[in-house]
Design a protein that fits this description.
2 domains, 271 residues, Rossmann fold
């Protein structure tokens, strides 16, 4: 909605009047009234979001992304779709698997997935991993994964606090994977997690995080983390950022985006 409102600024007021009159002539009064209501309410919603974002930044408010809020939201979510509601297309998902997941997660790795949700990526990770631990703040997600992968003997799932990895042994993880999770995690929780990454990763272990880049200003329940924040927080604890991208190209030349809100994927390694 925000981008739609911004794009209206590319048309002058005089031209907007001409468009409105033509719409009235071609579509009638009732349709034109509905259009006017749509434009007015979308403008109001855009302004309301701008005020929310300003207040959040000024007063350091958590918005919808505190650990307590995340727990409540994702335990209330209907996971019937298994998280696939966030996949723009089957082609996009397969490209994530081929060009990102399988590039950075190796066969026989001991894998930690943060926020498996309904198991959207877990199924692919399990094909590679010698063992997989799935930590999620939502008990309903853990239950969903336990049921979905009940016949898999090298996977376990547990409820986490949303800011630590208690229960994961020191230096036990080869690859850490998290997608569509850290877009909802604020800076204080990210800082706590970064220290945990150092603790649980083996020397040479790597992590792949999908996250926001603009501090939530584009909407989508995004956290207050920017791409600069992500880089600084990881490097401050001694992790090395080895790749960071918002788009990629597959072997057929098709280009894909990491997310709908200028999201990015950061890859890091523990030295």
């Amino acid at each position: 909605m925000k981008d739609i409102v911004e794009n209206r600024q590319r048309i002058s007021f005089g031209k907007k009047v001409k468009i409105a009159l033509l719409a009235l002539r071609e579509n009638g009064l009732l349709w034109s009234i509905c259009l006017a209501v749509y434009y007015a309410t979308s403008a109001i919603s855009a302004q309301a979001f701008a005020w929310m974002d300003s207040l959040r930044r000024k007063k350091q408010l958590p918005g919808l992304n505190s650990a307590a809020m995340n727990k409540l939201i994702w335990e209330s979510w209907d996971w019937g779709a298994g998280g696939e509601e966030w996949s723009p297309s089957p082609e996009w998902k397969q490209s994530v698997i081929d060009c990102v997941l399988r590039k950075y997660v190796s066969e026989e790795d001991q894998v930690l997935e943060i926020g498996p949700g309904g198991g959207r990526w877990t199924e692919e990770l399990l094909e590679l991993a010698s063992s997989l631990q799935g930590a999620d703040i939502s008990a309903s997600c853990v239950e969903a994964c336990q049921q979905r992968f009940a016949d898999v003997d090298h996977a376990e799932f547990f409820v986490s606090s949303g800011r630590d990895l208690e229960g994961v042994a020191d230096g036990s993880i080869d690859s850490l994977w998290s997608f569509d999770v850290f877009v909802h995690i604020n800076k204080p929780e990210l800082e706590a997690y970064a220290g945990e990454f150092v603790r649980v990763l083996k020397s040479g272990g790597k992590g792949v995080l999908h996250h926001g880049t603009v501090g939530g200003e584009k909407g989508g329940w995004r956290s207050n983390v920017t791409i600069e924040d992500m880089t600084c927080i990881l490097t401050d604890v001694g992790l090395e950022v080895v790749d960071q991208f918002q788009t990629w190209e597959d072997n057929k030349g098709a280009e894909f985006e990491a997310g709908l809100y200028q999201d990015a994927i950061t890859v890091f390694v523990k030295g």
